[in-house]
Amino acid sequence: MTPHLSHDRYQRGAARLADVDGPAGLAVVEGLAKSFPDFARYIVEFPFGDIYAREGLGLRERELATVAALCALGNAPPQLRVHVHAALHVGCTPVEVVEVVMQMAVYAGFPAALNGLAVVREVFAEAGIPLPLA
Amino acid sequence: MTPHLSHDRYQRGAARLADVDGPAGLAVVEGLAKSFPDFARYIVEFPFGDIYAREGLGLRERELATVAALCALGNAPPQLRVHVHAALHVGCTPVEVVEVVMQMAVYAGFPAALNGLAVVREVFAEAGIPLPLA
Amino acid sequence: MTPHLSHDRYQRGAARLADVDGPAGLAVVEGLAKSFPDFARYIVEFPFGDIYAREGLGLRERELATVAALCALGNAPPQLRVHVHAALHVGCTPVEVVEVVMQMAVYAGFPAALNGLAVVREVFAEAGIPLPLA
Amino acid sequence: MTPHLSHDRYQRGAARLADVDGPAGLAVVEGLAKSFPDFARYIVEFPFGDIYAREGLGLRERELATVAALCALGNAPPQLRVHVHAALHVGCTPVEVVEVVMQMAVYAGFPAALNGLAVVREVFAEAGIPLPLA
Amino acid sequence: MTPHLSHDRYQRGAARLADVDGPAGLAVVEGLAKSFPDFARYIVEFPFGDIYAREGLGLRERELATVAALCALGNAPPQLRVHVHAALHVGCTPVEVVEVVMQMAVYAGFPAALNGLAVVREVFAEAGIPLPLA
Amino acid sequence: MTPHLSHDRYQRGAARLADVDGPAGLAVVEGLAKSFPDFARYIVEFPFGDIYAREGLGLRERELATVAALCALGNAPPQLRVHVHAALHVGCTPVEVVEVVMQMAVYAGFPAALNGLAVVREVFAEAGIPLPLA
């Protein structure tokens, strides 16, 4: 474990956040920073500078895992919306996203999947992805 | 939607369950069937005959999503154990499994990730996978 | 386990859904089918064609159990609304519905019960059921 | 709202607890009282003296609702065990209990139902109820 | 355990509720009582007349604990709003409230903390507390 | 935001962890590090080096908030055990710990509080704290 400047960690996190979600992700963090600057910094540093910056798992798989978890938990629709968007941004196909959300009916029940699909529908509409998928 | 024999659906589910988890998965279902035969049949038919049998998402991605969801929910350790095993069985690397579980610290908190890692450690020990990973 | 046509299963589920929630339930499924036709079919087939179609438990008891579970989980208000409506539709009295929701204060805390009562109030208002109950 | 002696409320709760779960319920409360006497008193007074003592919903329905909620939440197996026992004690049939637990697969996912069935199997074994049910 | 008039218990709870949340808390209960009078009474009696009326833990600590729990559960935003307000009312500093909510990122994940901070921002805006805190 | 060496952050976290939980906390992290060294490092760095190291909220209040959250979530008994121990270590009285756990009956239901009290009883027994408290 080589010591490194935490400034590097923030920079690495900001770059990774841009990889994951494009300008939308950075905008969310900048909005948050106006009210809670320390927490905005932590979000860049730990989830993105530490976790998403790790090797060993692709960004596509990371986003599908996050969509699965947030859909299953069912109590964080705004973050699910961000990560459905991010999943598309890192190259997941619309079909893959829908499959993961439908699969959550098995593990967290049909209401969790239904409410996840409602979020998917909103994000797909903004992204111009027609439903039903072919 | 072409009508088809439900017997086919059960057969398809049993085959898919074997793909996902090998003999271990079928053994779980057979054990359950001794006490709750209808529910054992539903597990084969809906999760495996309907959901896992779908195209559009690879089995590796399906298992990583399931590991993520069960780790995040945190109230189903026996099923998390089954799916950590299944993730390895369908070709996820040990590193990928550990990465998904660690990532859950971001979305469901450190306790959820810690308890998920405890399950990973047990399954890896049975599978002869040494920790820490190289 | 006699093989049967899955088409029969869908038909059985659609009939059972109509028993449970009347035209409102079918309308929800038809709306969903415009975006996610496969998932709409699964909802008819598994929850209604398999589970609710079973003997051994009355529809009144099934709906009270569902209201209890959704109120306790607290993360699926749209589905709680559907099932408060359905509970009345299958013959639960308004008093029974309110009693189940209040009881959830014991098992899931007062906020879960309070948010459940807010849903009850909306559904009762649409149904013309005055509060407080006599 | 007529003022009444809180002693009456405790007595009413203890009587209701005995109705609901027989000597087993009272033994749980007495065991708890050795370490946490105030909390043991609250359990008698609020859940049983206030809620279960209410009219408008039968004890059978109350217990099925509680089994549903605890199975769906999935994080309170000891209390689920108590209420599976209580459900049988107030006259729910073994079939009704199993039906409610299986139904939770729809609302809280298959793992919640599976872990609920594991509790059911234990309680039924102690009660001499053979599985599978006829 | 000396018997006492339950009327006293209600009065004690109403006084404690006023201590905790000022006129806002009483207004919530009075609004609820129009639709669900028994449940409104229970809220005064058990949470406030029994629990919050106990000695051994200060009101500041009680409110910080409640904000922590509601933020972590994540499925009761209206009640979290009430208790962020109450925390300020009993003398918690704005910094203390924000610290507790940020800390929930560790135990319940970043989405729970983010959604908690969104509630904090609303309550602080109504209370004229500028963000970011100095 | 002044850049600083992350090594400092780890050192600060390790010191804070020792403040919070004494040798027991460091032992948990060292045990974890044998299997998952990166995750052990993150636990020191983010929860303790970032969050618990912040000013503005006392360690006593931090631990009471954590006990509240883990008791309410109900799916992380090992971590609840650690933090009941830590609460005592930072100077919370046994009464304060019991009060917080009992209060969770209001926000997360009686089963959550009961299972929390079972953890409290174990930790108090190890610490030689007799129950019931005087």
Automatic annotation (TrEMBL), chains A, B, C, D, E, F:
<dbReference type="GO" id="GO:0051920">
    <property type="term" value="F:peroxiredoxin activity"/>
</dbReference>
<protein>
    <submittedName>
        <fullName>Carboxymuconolactone decarboxylase</fullName>
    </submittedName>
</protein>
<dbReference type="InterPro" id="IPR052512">
    <property type="entry name" value="4CMD/NDH-1_regulator"/>
</dbReference>
<dbReference type="Pfam" id="PF02627">
    <property type="entry name" value="CMD"/>
</dbReference>
<dbReference type="InterPro" id="IPR003779">
    <property type="entry name" value="CMD-like"/>
</dbReference>
<dbReference type="InterPro" id="IPR029032">
    <property type="entry name" value="AhpD-like"/>
</dbReference>
